[in-house]
Amino acid sequence: MHRQSALFLDFDGTLADIAPRPDAVRVDPSVVQNLQRLHAQLNGAVAIITGRSLNEIRTFLYPLTLAGAYEHGAIRQGATGDPFQEPTPPLETIRAAAQNLVQRHPRLLVEQKSSGVAVHYRQAPELHGEVIQVLTQLTAHDNELQLLQGKAVLEIKSAHVGKGPAIKAFMQEAPFLGRTPVFIGDDVTDESGFEAVQNLGGTAIKIGEGATAARHRMPTPSALRLWLQSTADHLETTP
């Protein structure tokens, strides 16, 4: 990576190790320190591209404030200005059905996001079939909604947002404009982002195993943490 790069990073499974519950995630202090260095070295062209909410990322990366796309691109915060939220389809029926699932199966966890609903089944993997059946039925005849499958999570979101479109939008504005994009992620939910940066002549890196459009890999989030450190060290001595 060089000083004319733009760096985009997923959060869970990338900057932070996957945890049993979303609220149990811990961020290594070196991540915040090195992101702060890279933010300065790349003149602000660093953004978080995640399914998490804006407030969650602000808390996890405090006191660092970066540009970002949250809830899979439904909410976007540029390097300057206020967050912008894309229009959200009606979700009342989806929210009620997800809550009903949890009442029947307390080991499931539901996240009621501002722009979607996620059902985590990491604590009950045997329920994957039932969860996907229920959520598929809810979205099958609605072109405004998309069912997204991640690592032990199923999420219903607007069909009109995604990590790829979010990265493309960032690349059309300062400080990302004219730079070469690099996107690092770990999950199926990152695939549209991988395709977007490669179509723009950039680099896509997948963390871990599994089929992917990304042409490069890193083994683990800990390997990424070392990469952030070495990249910041390299840029420090590079004009």
Task: Describe the structure in your own words.
With 239 residues, the chain is of the alpha/beta class. It has two domains: 158 residues, Rossmann fold; 67 residues, Alpha-Beta Plaits (2-Layer Sandwich), CATH 3.30.70.1020. It contains seven helices and twelve strands. Helix 3 runs antiparallel to helix 4. The model has no long low-confidence stretch (mean pLDDT 94).
- Helical content band: 25-40%
Count of the domains: 2
| Overall morphology | globular
Report Rg. Answer: 18 Å
Task: Tell me the β content.
Answer: 15-25%
Label the structural class: alpha/beta
Taking the sheet with the most strands, its summary is: 8 strands, mixed
Name the CATH class of the largest domain. Alpha Beta
CATH architecture group name of the largest domain: 3-Layer(aba) Sandwich
What are the secondary-structure elements, in order, as H or E? Answer: EHEHEEEHEEHEEHEHEEH
Q: Which sequence of strands runs across the widest sheet?
A: 5-4-3-2-1-10-11-12
Query: How many runs of DSSP E, i.e. beta strands?
Result: 12
